[in-house]
Amino acid sequence: MSNPLATTFAGIPFKNPVTTASGTFGFGDEYANFYDLTELGGLCTKGLTLEPRLGNKGQRLYETPSGLINSIGLENPGIDHFVERIWPHLKTLPSVTIANVSGSDENSYLEALRRLNAIDVPLIELNISCPNVKAGGMAYGTSPDSAANLTAKAVAVSRHPIMVKLTPNVSDIVSIAKACEEAGAVGLSLINTIQAMAVDVHQKKIVFDNIYAGLSGPAVFPIALRMVHQVCKAVDIPVMGVGGIATWEDALAMMMVGATCIQVGVMNFIDPYRPIKIIEGLKNYCEEEGLKSIEEIRGILL
């Protein structure tokens, strides 16, 4: 029996278009206690940097109506630990592993990518959009020139295909998307979190030590949907839609406006089974609509 959810992203086969978003799934270990990770189309690692990072000090999470503000600060064990200790397990999974890579400056990005050349990870997500670090991160994703410059250098040093993760904290995301495409990115993922802040009025202080942090969750979905639509109309490379996806209907909406795959983020915290429920919902939709492939609805609203 054919699989109606089978999807291809930049030439890479996915058993279904549902992946988990970086920073919300760790490296999958905890979620493996709930379900078989092979059911996922793919999983995106937490943000990896050249050196291990402890992350930001102070409070890191703050709930808002239909959302979550985070200031984690890319806490991770570093590229070498990932290559030596974590990849040996992930490479045995049939789901596509996407390695999210960040850095504090150009050299740290590029050296991290060089070290990943030692393994056969299928896809790199180049994170030029993290709002929770004081150096690097979002700074590279806020102008077409800086985004294109880093993308081109990443493509040159990496033997893996590069997908660039875009920030919504810009006035013109389309120009940045097109610049990354022209620089050699095989795909794009969007959006990352929206810069936000929180105040504790009882303590009369700002909640986060870094003052500003990243808002995600269902509250941002309409903004993410709009930006995915804008970008899909403008580029010829595939897009992963991410930002507030909570239901299979949200995932379907992302695909109708052009996304090839989607990423589930904050909902992993609320309901660890949510990606599986979204996969089942999409399967049922295909059956009810008589679709042989989910591809039949992709981009119908462009």
Briefly say what this structure is.
The protein has eight helices and 16 strands.
Quick one: overall form? globular
Order of helices and strands: EEEEEEHEHEHEHEEEEEHEHEHH
Number of strands: 16
Write down the CATH class: Alpha Beta
Can you list the strand order of the major beta sheet? 3-4-7-8-9-10-15-16
Structure description:
This protein is of the alpha/beta class and 302 residues long. It has a single domain (7-55, 73-194, 217-296), classed as TIM Barrel (Alpha-Beta Barrel), CATH 3.20.20. It is 30% helix and 19% strand. The protein is built from eight helices and 16 strands. The protein has helices at 79-90, 106-116, 144-157, 173-182, 221-234, 248-256, 267-270, 274-289; strands at residues 7-9, 12-14, 18-20, 42-44, 61-64, 67-70, 96-101, 123-127, 162-165, 187-190, 194-196, 199-200, 205-206, 213-216, 239-242, 261-264. An eight-stranded parallel beta barrel has the order 3-4-7-8-9-10-15-16, surrounded by six helices. It has a four-stranded antiparallel β-sheet with strand order 5-6-14-11, with no helix packed on it. The longest helix has 16 residues, at 274-289. Mean pLDDT is 94; it is low at 132-136.
